[in-house]
Amino acid sequence: MSVSPMHSAPDDGVNQRRAELAELMKRFAPQDGVYSTAIDTLNIVRCDQPTDALHVVHKPGLCVIVEGRKEVRLADERYVYDPLNYLVVSVTLPLAGQVVEASPERPYLCVRLDIDPAQICRLIADASAIGVPPPKTGRGLFLDRIDSPLLDAVLRLLRLLDSPDDIATLAPLAQQEIFYRLLRGTQGQRLQEIAIPDTQTHRISRAIEWLNTHYAEPLSIDSLAQMINLSPSALHHRFKAVTAMSPLQYQKQLRLQEARRLLLADNSDVSSIGYKMGYESPSQFSREYSRLFGASPSKDIARLRAQALQVDSA
């Protein structure tokens, strides 16, 4: 399944703000890479050329593309977005992201802002008199078109990078407005259902966080369901509705991504890493690794290391 946001022609004011954003980002991200900023929760991502798929465990966050184009995969679903569209990840998800349009003249530029569910919950309480769309079930990931008020709030946040003395006071206000605009948007209920305690989706988010901490351990669906106060059938149904995966499939993605990280980080042999991640045999580990990453562990790691050497020598 492929999902793309709706498009409409931006007005001159939107184009002007987008151009200002791009110039700010190029100054603070002068070449390829992911750049942290003086605002702890804000990162700037730049790519000067298309990339291979990068597998990551994505924490809750807002991503706004200012230039370029990107494809994100969640299980078998594809989400494609480009300038002035945004992606929200409301729960921790194993994703594969690939920049599909970028060049040195027009690099891929993306603003990434961490989302704090506790802050979202406080905003919901404060905004109740104004109105937030009612909760609906759905994926823990969605795309939408950015509107002028949200774009203005994002631009104000990035402008603060030029006045670091103002960040401590004004950045929290700008971030609060950004989250408020997301909540008031057409898909604001996706954030609302994750943040409000005791909803079924909030319980699923607790199961997700438990899996992210205990992914190498044997998984008992009955025990996990009991921990979050859902029946096993409700756990399976709601978990798949949010993540596009069953709990076991989700755990498998976490195990394989961590195995890949460990194989890149040290010289441990493939078998020992597979056993560490809970696989009973090297052949099972290699088979599932190849299914996710497109090559056996040894070939995949050799390719990644060769790419890293090319980047270092460039």
TrEMBL record:
<dbReference type="Pfam" id="PF06719">
    <property type="entry name" value="AraC_N"/>
</dbReference>
<dbReference type="GO" id="GO:0009893">
    <property type="term" value="P:positive regulation of metabolic process"/>
</dbReference>
<protein>
    <submittedName>
        <fullName>AraC family transcriptional regulator</fullName>
    </submittedName>
</protein>
<dbReference type="InterPro" id="IPR018062">
    <property type="entry name" value="HTH_AraC-typ_CS"/>
</dbReference>
<keyword id="KW-0238">DNA-binding</keyword>
<keyword id="KW-0805">Transcription regulation</keyword>
<dbReference type="Pfam" id="PF12833">
    <property type="entry name" value="HTH_18"/>
</dbReference>
<dbReference type="GO" id="GO:0043565">
    <property type="term" value="F:sequence-specific DNA binding"/>
</dbReference>
<dbReference type="GO" id="GO:0003700">
    <property type="term" value="F:DNA-binding transcription factor activity"/>
</dbReference>
<feature type="domain" description="HTH araC/xylS-type">
    <location>
        <begin position="205"/>
        <end position="303"/>
    </location>
</feature>
<dbReference type="InterPro" id="IPR009594">
    <property type="entry name" value="Tscrpt_reg_HTH_AraC_N"/>
</dbReference>
<dbReference type="InterPro" id="IPR018060">
    <property type="entry name" value="HTH_AraC"/>
</dbReference>
<keyword id="KW-0804">Transcription</keyword>
<dbReference type="InterPro" id="IPR009057">
    <property type="entry name" value="Homeodomain-like_sf"/>
</dbReference>
